[in-house]
Design goal:
Layout: H1 17-29, H2 33-48, E1 53-58, E2 68-74, H3 79-88, E3 91-92, H4 98-104, E4 109-111, H5 118-124, E5 129-136, E6 139-146, H6 154-203, H7 207-222, E7 226-233, E8 238-245, H8 251-260, H9 264-272, E9 276-278, E10 296-304, E11 307-316, H10 324-363, E12 367-371, E13 377-380, H11 384-387, H12 401-405, H13 410-420, E14 424-429, E15 435-443, E16 447-454, H14 456-493, H15 498-528, E17 535-539, H16 540-557, E18 561-565, E19 571-575, H17 576-592, E20 599-607, E21 610-617, H18 624-627, H19 651-661, E22 665-671, E23 675-683
Parallel strand pairs: 18-20
Antiparallel strand pairs: 1-2, 1-6, 2-3, 4-5, 5-6, 7-8, 7-11, 9-10, 10-11, 12-13, 12-16, 14-15, 15-16, 17-19, 20-21, 21-23, 22-23
Helix pairs in contact: 1-6, 2-6, 6-10, 7-10, 14-15, 15-19, 16-17, 17-19
The protein binds adenosine-5'-diphosphate.
Length: about 700
């Protein structure tokens, strides 16, 4: 093919179809739209000999029927001139213009009389011209306009028509390519932002940072003028605005406006759990006009599982500002922020709980000390320092129990509790001269928790009370002895029988009961005021034999057999008098609460370091509810069977205190109507009996 530029004007060469194929191939390799337009203009002008060529092309290559076509290239035009041309001139493919009408019929249009496309023709200063439709996939997508005075010969027109369509295909491809590239770029950009967001959010633990950062990103990405994040509590239906950007009104006004609108669009979104894109807020009845210049709005719910936990809202001064891309982005961001917001919420909840606990611990007057399973100090409150004689500015965390408790009576108790892995409650005198009730308990995952309660005042009051009881009881005993003496004299000096004898015996029984009560009261008062035990190794059999022989008469009266089963030489560590009192009470109760012909069995055995003594009977038994109370002072079981049995309700209280003073344990195992078993555990005797 000869060079087209060498041909005379308005005499295009005979069409060379092979060169058209070459040209098509070349045009198709150009993917840049603007470069392609320039190349197509150049080739068309050169081939046709036109002084000027114009390409009209559609804005939207995906459009089907009705599209807009505008000039995308004019030979010799610089980009700036072209841009203003593009912005000002556009035609609809449904326009009644004769040229467009011809193109719609797929015909070539020849204009010599300035009838068609006036605006364009005037702007580009063309006289007579030929317009060829650009048809791609059966759709009119534009036109190739050549500044030619006459319509060329039919084969040339056919060639030019093909060229126009080839230009159309190449332009469409280039536009699709640039659209795909720009949407890919936008997507990559979005992904990069989301990735950064993920990274930054995962590092944020404070709620306010998470909210501020999220809102900032949303505003920047969507090009909004203002925005808010409000956390939503489904249970109370309350929306709380926690982050705000871009509103000028003072906080009080903002709150007032939002309250008046009952939370506005954000609240509606919180209820529906659906995003909303409002192109024109003036049509929305729920819009809260915090700023009156805002025209469009976008609200997206932040979900955690199926609950709305917050709402992200952004607003723009432009009408119809938000598009689907903005919506998708904010929804993606909300999905990410949801987890971070929930984590931040949980964190702030946990930290405020921790703070609360720490404050409580700091301010309670009880001493709290916690050692872990490795015997190391993990926690200690303020009250502990003076009680343990520690320096208030010392660093004790991580130190051993031995170091922290050194020189106090708490250390041996802690060591023992640790050995037994059991709970121990005990009264202790601490180095500051005060008395504490110490409670040591072991918890898996924590270690040993020690709580010391200052009972000095209570002890002093108790002491006073005990002294009072002791004095009063002693003063009561005196007249009783006198009365007892006179009654005995009366019996000896007077021959009595019948009613008078019954009266005297009843008076004697009452005096005996009262003496029993006074003895018990005195004994309890003595124990509670802190009796000194004379601890040594004692032969258990001797003690128990003595008790059984003391109780022999009452057992015999009811034909109750008492069986003692104790290995010879079994030694127990204890105070002689107290042990006598313990077993006298227990065996005495067994006889007292067992009907005639019953059996009482006392069994003793050594188990490792301890001696276990069981006093079992075949008596009335004790209900589970009563078992929990029988060791309380003055508690007596009220049942028809026990009504006729005398007692003070102090016996078991005394027994329990004495056993505890021996650092032993007492328990009961009983069934109503089947008998009872009282089990006492004491330390085995260490030294030979003196
Ligand atoms: P009391 O002086 O009433 O015997 P205790 O303190 O010794 O007081 O006992 C408290 C209560 O426990 C008694 O009232 C009795 O109901 C019950 N109890 C004690 N030992 C036995 C037992 N071996 N069998 C049945 N009930 C018993």
């Amino acid at each position: 093919m000869e060079a087209p530029s060498a041909l005379p004007i308005s005499s295009p060469p005979a069409p060379d179809w092979a060169s058209l194929v070459d040209l098509q191939t070349r045009l198709n390799t150009i993917l840049d739209f603007e470069a392609l337009v320039q190349e197509a203009l150049r080739e068309s002008a050169a081939f046709s000999g036109a002084a000027r060529a114009v390409i009209l092309f559609t804005d939207d290559v995906a459009a089907t029927e009705d599209s807009v076509i505008r000039p995308v290239g004019v030979t010799g035009y610089v980009p700036a001139t072209l841009r203003s041309l593009r912005e000002t001139i556009a035609f609809s493919t449904h326009d009644a213009d004769p040229a467009i009408a011809a193109w719609s019929r797929r015909e070539v249009y020849h204009d010599a009389a300035h009838e068609a496309l006036r605006s364009l023709v005037t702007a580009v200063e063309m006289q007579a011209w030929v317009g060829l439709p650009i048809v791609v996939r059966g759709m009119l997508m534009g036109a190739l306009i050549l500044d030619l005075p006459e319509l060329p010969a039919a084969p040339v027109v056919a060639w030019l028509k093909s060229l126009a369509n080839s230009i159309g295909v190449a332009l469409r491809n280039a536009r699709l390519h640039s659209q795909a590239t720009s949407s890919l770029n936008a997507r990559m950009n979005e992904l990069a932002i989301l990735q950064r967001i993920d990274l930054e959010l995962s590092e944020q633990i404070h709620a306010s940072h998470v909210f501020d950062m999220t809102l900032d990103w949303v505003l920047r990405y969507t090009g909004s003028n203002a925005g808010t994040i409000a956390v939503y509590d489904e249970d109370s239906d309350v929306l709380k605005f926690v982050a705000e950007i871009g509103y000028e009104a003072p906080e009080a006004t903002r709150t007032m406006v939002r309250n008046a609108a009952d939370g506005g669009i954000a609240k509606r979104v919180a209820h529906s759990a659906r995003s909303e894109l409002i192109p024109d807020v003036s049509n929305d009845p729920d819009f809260a006009p915090v700023s009156t210049v805002m025209r469009s709005h976008l609200s997206v719910p932040v979900m955690k599982e199926d609950r709305v936990i917050a709402v992200i809202s952004v607003e723009s001064r432009k009408l119809n500002h938000f598009n689907d891309d903005h919506l998708t982005f904010v929804e993606r961001l909300a999905a990410r922020a949801g987890n971070a917001m929930d984590n931040a919420r949980l964190f702030s909840q946990t930290s405020s709980e921790r703070e609360k606990l720490a404050n409580i611990l700091l301010n309670i007057t009880d001493v709290v000390v916690v050692f872990n399973a490795e015997d190391r100090l993990v926690l200690m409150n303020q009250s502990a320092y003076p009680v343990l004689r520690l320096y208030t500015d010392g660093k004790y965390e991580g130190q051993s129990a031995e170091a922290v408790l050194e020189g106090t009576d708490l250390l041996p108790v802690y060591t023992e509790a640790r050995k037994l892995q059991d709970t121990i409650s005990q009264e202790l005198q601490m180095p500051n001269g005060r008395t504490y009730s110490a409670h040591l308990s072991f918890h898996s995952h924590v270690g040993c928790i020690i709580v010391l309660q200052d009972i000095t005042e209570a002890k002093e009051t108790d002491q006073l009370k005990n002294e009072l009881i002791a004095t009063v009881s002693h003063d009561l005993k005196q007249p009783l002895t006198v009365m007892q003496g006179y009654l005995e004299l009366l019996l000896m000096s007077t021959q009595m029988e019948g009613r008078p004898l019954e009266y005297v015996r009843a008076a004697q029984r009452s005096i005996a009961n009262m003496r029993g009560l006074i003895d018990d009261l005195l004994s309890l008062a003595k124990i509670e005021s802190g009796i000194q035990l004379n601890m040594r190794a004692l032969d258990l059999k001797t003690i128990l034999d003595r008790c059984i022989s003391d109780l022999g008469a009452s057992a015999e009266m009811k034909s109750i057999s008492i069986k003692l089963d104790v290995p010879d030489g079994l030694m127990v560590q204890g105070d002689h008098l107290s042990l006598g009192q313990i077993f006298n009470n227990l065996i005495g109760n067994a006889v007292k609460y067992t009907p005639p012909e019953g059996k009482v069995t006392v069994n003793c055995e050594r188990r490792g370091d301890v001696v276990v003594v069981t006093v079992a009977d075949t008596g009335l038994g004790i209900s589970p509810e009563d078992q929990a109370k029988i060791f309380n002072r003055f508690y007596r079981v009220r049942r028809p069977e026990t009504e006729m049995i005398d007692g003070t309700g102090l016996g078991l209280a005394i027994v329990k205190r004495l056993v505890e003073l021996h650092r032993g344990h007492i328990g009961v195992d009983s069934r109503l109507g089947e008998g009872s078993r009282f089990i006492v555990t004491l330390s085995a005797g260490k030294d030979p009996e003196i």
